[in-house]
Amino acid sequence: MKSDNLPILDWTLEYTKCYLQNQGLADNSIRILCEENKVDGKCLLCLNDNDFTVEPISKLTLRDRKALYCTCKALQRENHDILIKLGIADSPESSIYSNHQSCKQESEYGDVEHISPTLSDDGRPRLPPEKTKAFLSLCYVVAVTWITAFVMVIVHDRVPDMKKYPPLPDIFLDNVPHIPWAFDMCEVTGTLMFTIWLIVLLFHKHRFILLRRFFSLSGTVFLLRCITMLITSLSVPGTHLQCEPRNTFPVQGGSSFDNLATKLSQAYIIWRGAGMSIQGVRTCGDYMFSGHTVALTTLNFFITEYTPRHIYYVHTLSWMMNMFGVFFILAAHEHYSIDVFVAFYITSRLFLYYHTLANNQALMSRDSTRTRVWFPLFSYFENSVDCIVPNEYDTPAEVAKQFINFVNELVVDAFKSLASVFQRQEASVAVSNSSNTSNQSHVSKKTM
After folding, report:
1. 119, 123, 348, 428: least surrounded by Cβ within 10 Å?
2. 339 tagged catalytic
3. Alpha-carbon dihedral sign for residues 211, 214, 220, 225
4. Which residues lie within the region annotated Disordered (predicted)?
5. Options 339, 367, 386, 413, the catalytic residue
6. In the annotation, is 310 catalytic?
7. Which residues contact 221 (CB under 8 A, 6 or more apart)?
8. 190, exposed or middle or buried, with CB in 10 Å at 0-12, 13-18, 19+?
9. pLDDT tens digits for range 198-212
10. Residue 299 pLDDT > 80, yes or no?
């Protein structure tokens, strides 16, 4: 029986049953669909992605769900004009079968390539956690923070003399009085935003994807900051700051290794305190551009991107804390206005650029060469993410269960490692004993 023998809108229940039998569906699945749920030709044509995740289709076996999936997709392709007439499909290019439309890419020769997201067994887009990539991104951001701390030590030693180079003219700093406690309030605001972000990570289903994006973007922005604050040293923005080089000259009688060890110890103090004044860290010369603004803006964009849209009060609070944090930085006269503006612009543009490519595989594929040049980590971290990451969350019970499973896996792996070590030691002892026994027998034969 071919699908074009009778218009699909005229298919009766019996005709639909016969058609599904010819497609290889089991009798029990056909009974559930056609007898219990009255699925006829029109209903079969209008099945969409969500229908495959709920009953009755979710009760079918995996084989029958796959067979029904292929059948519906073929019917929709053959009867797309009918879907347009029914008002379900708006244009020949649209498809009701997937919530994520296939991306189209036009090549240099005028051909159109269709890029569709890879689906899992339940019809949803495939979003593997890839914990190894998250760990590598963590290593990347740790390395970058160490480099940043070391560069901050260098630029502190190159800070211009305040007597010879007074603060530069600045519209905001010249018109807003200095508030001594404002910088501490900025860091308290950043700590609150970081706490909110940790809560989002804890309950988000795709937390490892979020982690590697957060680490890779943060590391890249701070790496750019290392370059900008190293190549040009701005004068101190306020006379209230006590800034002067700490190690202008090498230690007398000391080797270059001693000077390097001193700088590394100073860098460790900065790294350990995350560059925060409330942790006892005071640095000078690292003005272009503001690292505190980078941290606030990055946290703000990640919180608003990976929380549901209907939680608007969280988004409003996040933006308010971002703006107040920036104001506190300027009110404390710790940075020039241009430092804050450039930091916000670079961080926001890099975030949007990254997520535009990640959410649109056609752009990434078409511009893959340029992407590898300007964003080398992107191609590796995002090669298995084929769609927009949905904001889905686990319940506290699910989070606790996952944590217990993770701990159990660690314990089991540790015991397996110890067992393998003991087995290797026993094997080596057995080999050495057998060799000693053979040597002794050989010596006894010689003596005889």
Report:
1. 428
2. yes
3. negative
4. 107-126
5. 339
6. no
7. 294, 298, 346, 347, 350
8. buried
9. 999 999 989 999 999
10. yes
Q: What is the mean pLDDT of the chain?
A: 81
Distance CA 103, CA 269 (A): 49
Residue 222's identity, in one-letter code, is: F
Q: Which residue has the tokens 């530069």?
A: 168
122 near 110, Cβ under 8 Å?
no
Place of tokens 């969350």: 393
The answer to pTM > 0.85 is no
Domain residue ranges in the chain: 8-97, 131-393
The CA radius of gyration of the chain, in Å to the nearest whole number, is 32
Six-digit token pair at 228? 């900008």
In the structure encoding, which two tokens stand for residue 120, read together?
A: 């899992």
Task: Write down the catalytic residue from 335, 367, 394, 442.
Answer: 335
pLDDT single digits (tens) 308-367: 988 889 999 999 999 999 999 999 999 999 999 999 999 999 999 888 888 876 566 666
Active site residue 292: yes
Q: 3-class DSSP state for residue 158?
A: coil
What would be the CATH architecture of the domain defined by 8-97?
Answer: Orthogonal Bundle (1.10)
How many angstroms separate the CA atoms of 264 and 187, rounded?
A: 25
Q: What is the pLDDT of residue 319?
A: 96
Catalytic residue among 292, 333, 367, 394: 292
